Every structure is written in structure tokens, then in C-alpha cells.
Amino acid sequence: MYRIITTDGRAKRGELTTVHGTIQTPVFMNVGTVGAIKGAVSTMDLHMIGTQVELSNTYHLHVRPGDTVIKKLGGLHRFMNWDRPILTDSGGFQVFSLTSLRKIKEEGVYFHSHIDGRKIFMGPEESMQIQSNLASTIAMAFDECAPYPADRNYMVNSVNRTTRWLKRCKDEMSRLNSLEDTINPHQLLFGINQGGTYEDIRTDHAKTIAEMELDGYAVGGLAVGETHAEMYHILDKVVPCLPQDKPTYLMGVGTPANILEGVDRGIDFFDCVYPSRNGRHGHVYTNHGKLNLFNARYELDDRPIEEECQCPACRNYSRAYIRHLLKAKEMLGMRLCVLHNLYFYNHLMEEIREAIEEHRYSAFKKAKLEGFLINDKK
Questions:
Q1: Nearest Cα to 187, choosing from 205, 174, 203?
Q2: Which residues lie within the region annotated RNA binding (predicted)?
């Protein structure tokens, strides 16, 4: 069940109650594609840095180790030793990202595994079955994330097919949740809005899926090449067309600035690989912009990555030491940067929730965005 605690402009402060715990929103989901955060981060670490939701990938877990293997081991929560909510994406993004390895048909998508080349078929029913085997808290509907740019005719056909697939997902999820051997019979289903940067296609699709009484709604197919201004414009138009009494998820977004702007437009859920990917390359987020710890200026810098930050890296180590680890290619350096970045994102969401509760979100957003520019201007 989702409820809005308070609003500040279009920003929502809510909570989603699930079988695996209550999610305080707005929330950033930490991305663990194959059931682990890249950078040697454990589920015990995730607890320590304030993670509410972990996100894993349906396609990748289906390919390896296999969703049937995970089901036999008690589901993904038990497999990875994580007792809080998990969201699994549907495999639909791989329709976009594995262009050279797939063929789209009405029944679904034919893949060649990126690991060993074996043939794989995934349609709406297969995606729901895999996610049911994984027993995640929230399952995403199977969709096509169309390429950017795509011509109008392609986009219309793609969105119409995504709508037909969504109906099939809903029917199959209902069937699976009724089976006796289903690990999580309370699995939630989020639908996905598509349409690229075509405002009318986006809003028409949003109105169509809003009538399907789903557990939540995502805006997909953004942050795939369009400008930030285009993305924000689409959110301005689309979010009001989605049910306001259901959580809204902006998929694959993004930077701290993107999150602040998304919250301001009514988004509840976010996910992105940026904090872990950038951390593995020595790029760390602070309230004064992003730092590249490989830079020589940090060689003798005995300060933490960020003063007053309570993450494990900042409580115990200096910029100089972490830079040394990175230069020496020691895994600890990468791990500390990832932990810091994920903590930064999770803590940012705590600050956002507090600002909305205190009805000062506009001023909070303005101050944060100005702070992020300090190091970026250097």
C-alpha cells in the first residue's frame, strides 16, 4: 500500500508498504545487477550505508546462475542474504542495450546470450515467471525501451506493443501469485510508460496504463541520449497523467541534480549505476561537486572525501590514502569510493524527505544545485 505523507509543490513524501518492509520515498535504489553491488559491497554494507531497496536484473540473473536455481535456493532475498525490498527490472532494457543480439516479435524478444551465445526467448509471460522465481518485492512489466532517436511511426508501434505486453504481464502476474509454490505471492507489479520525447505519445500512453490499476508506474526510455531539458519537459507532461495515489519511478536516472529535479516533478523512485560505476573509477560525489581522486592535487590531502560525512570511507580514511589505493590498483580503494557514493546518494534522499516534510524543498533544491557546481567549475 502506498500513501502520501505530505507534499511540497509537486514533490511527494510518501511510503510504500511491502511484504519485505516499508519504503520511505523519495528513494534511491542501489543497483546490484547480478545480485551484488559492483565494487565488493556486501548486503551487510548496504544496511550500514542506509540502503532501503536493492535492484537486480532479470535478464542477467536468468542467464547466470539461472532463476530456477535461485528459486530452489529460496528466492533472491535468501540467496543474497538481503531482508529488505528488492526491485527486479523486466529484461526490457536489454531489448534496447543488446541491439545486435536480439529480434523483437509480437510474442516477445529473441536473444542471444551475451555470455555464451545461446538462444533465449523472453516475452511478458517469461519475464513474469523469471521474476516470480526470483521472488522480488517489486516486478517490472516487460516493455521495449525504444532507441533514441526513433521515428514517430516506430515509436507508435513500439508503445502499442508495450501496452499489449503490459496486459499480458498483469494477467500472468495474477496467475503466478495464486500458485501454491510461489515464494512471494504478494509480488507487486509496476507498469512502464514509454514514448521517447514525443509528448503526445507519452501522455496518451500514461493515460492508458493509468486505467490498468497497477501497483506503481515507471517512466522509462529516458536518459538514453536526450538532453536533460527534454527529459524534464517529458516529466512535466507525463507525471500528472499517472495516478497520484501510486508510486512513480524514473528508471535509470541519474545524477544528484537529475534526482533533485525529478523529485520536484513528483517522482518517488530512482535508480542509476552512476554512484558505483563512477566510484570504481575514483570519481566521488560531494555536496560541493564531484572529485576525481586520481588528480595529483589530492596526493597530500589528509582530509576525508567530505567533511562531516559519516560513511565508512570518510570516517576512517583520507583522500590521500584512497588516492594511493586507486593508483596502486588495490581493490580497497575502489570499494571505499563505491561505499562513499552510495552513502552520499542514500543520505541525499534522507535530506530530500526531510526538506519535503518541512515544506522547504524549493530552497533546499536551489542550495544543493548551487553547491554541486563548486568543484565542477574548477
A1: 174
A2: 252-258
Residue type, 352: I
Percentage of the chain beyond pLDDT 90 is: 90
Query: Which residues are known catalytic residues?
Result: 89, 271
Are the C-beta atoms of residues 368 and 260 closer than 8 Å to each other?
yes
- Model confidence over 250-297: pLDDT tens digits? 999 999 999 999 999 999 999 999 999 999 999 999 999 999 999 999
Which residues are CB-neighbours of 310 under 8 A, at least 6 positions away? 343, 347
Query: Has 309 been labeled as part of a binding site?
Result: yes
Distance separating alpha carbons of residues 88 and 102, to the nearest angstrom: 21
> Is 204 labelled a binding residue?
no
Instruction: Say if residues 248 and 11 touch (Cβ distance below 8 Å).
Output: no
Which CATH entry fits the domain spanning 2-272: 1.10.240.10, 3.40.1800.10, 3.40.50.300, 3.20.20.105?
3.20.20.105
183, three cell numbers: 515464494
Q: Does the pLDDT value for residue 130 go beyond 70?
A: yes
Instruction: Tell me how far apart the 2 most distant CA atoms of the chain are, in Å.
Output: 61
- Is 145 annotated as contributing to ligand binding? no
Phi-psi region of 188 (alpha: psi -120 to 50; beta: other; left: phi over 0): beta
Q: Where in the chain is the domain with CATH 3.20.20.105?
A: 2-272
Q: What is the dihedral of CA 193, 260, 369, 299, to 10 degrees?
A: -90
359 annotated as ligand-binding: no
- How many CA atoms are closer than 13 Å to the CA of 261, on its beta-carbon side? 16
Q: Across-strand partners of 283?
A: 292
Per the annotation, does 272 bind a ligand? no
Q: What is the pTM of this model?
A: 0.97
89 belongs to an annotated ligand binding site: yes
DSSP-derived 3-state class of residue 54:
strand
